[in-house]
Amino acid sequence: MKFAIQVNEGPYQHQATDSAYQFTKAALEGGHEVMRVFFYHDGVNNGTKLTTPPQDDRNIVNRWSELAKKYDLDMVVCVAAAQRRGIVDEGEMQRNGKDAENIADNFRISGLGQLVEAGIQSERLVVFGD
Amino acid sequence: MSTLHTVNKSPFEKSSMDSCLAYAKQGSAVLMYEDGIYGAIKGTAIADKIAAASGVSFYVLGPDLKARGVAEDKVVDGIEIVDYPKFVALAAENDKVQAWV
Q1: With an 8 Å Cβ cutoff, is A26 touching chain B?
Q2: For range A30-56, the mean pLDDT
Q3: How far apart are CA B56 and CA B63, in angstroms?
Q4: Mean pLDDT within B12-28
Q5: Cα A96 to Cα A88, A90, B72, B75, distances in angstroms
Q6: CATH superfamily of the domain spanning A2-128
Q7: Which label site among A40, A43, A64, A96 has the fewest CB atoms less than 10 Å from its CB?
Q8: Are residues B42 and B74 in contact, defined by beta-carbon separation less than 8 angstroms?
Q9: Residue A5 CB neighbour total at 10 angstroms
Q10: Which chain A residues touch B33 with a CB distance below 8 Å?
């Protein structure tokens, strides 16, 4: 089964991102395909590498990055939501005249078309959020 | 066309579970997770509505029950307690997934 996942909430604020991670991990371990995880609204905050939680807490950002690395997962951050919230990659840094970038490993910034495409190309779109 | 409905809010906080029950057709499935698990507890007004929904299968996510200290014997009879792999299986078995937030 080909899944696509949408995450609408930020880390450490709402359980949605934890639920989405556990679902995605279970799907991949179960032999399913997850063709894309799309981070929308406050969900883009899952993609900042500046996150530094206490050592005895889960590192939600690194956990996504590691899952993506292991399964070659396509993790897309919505560009408009990212610009509002200060999630920046090399391209956005130059385009918007910023002096830093903070996108975490294996995340990429792209447009809402990626969500539409995921909805069309996947067999199930599963939404996690508030 | 069967649908997996997911509910992640307590029915005592928001009306999403009520909306879900109004839309869930025969042959569909409802999964309660996150704060939605409070809808699976025995002896509430929601439990009566679940009992009245004929032809709909109900599920509750075990890890979210445990995270909230709700013992499995508090869950309404007939609601199946599931793990994440079964959540994935439910999403695959049904034709689509509708999130009620």
Answers
A1: yes
A2: 98
A3: 22
A4: 96
A5: 9, 10, 53, 53
A6: DsrEFH-like (3.40.1260.10)
A7: A96
A8: yes
A9: 24
A10: 19
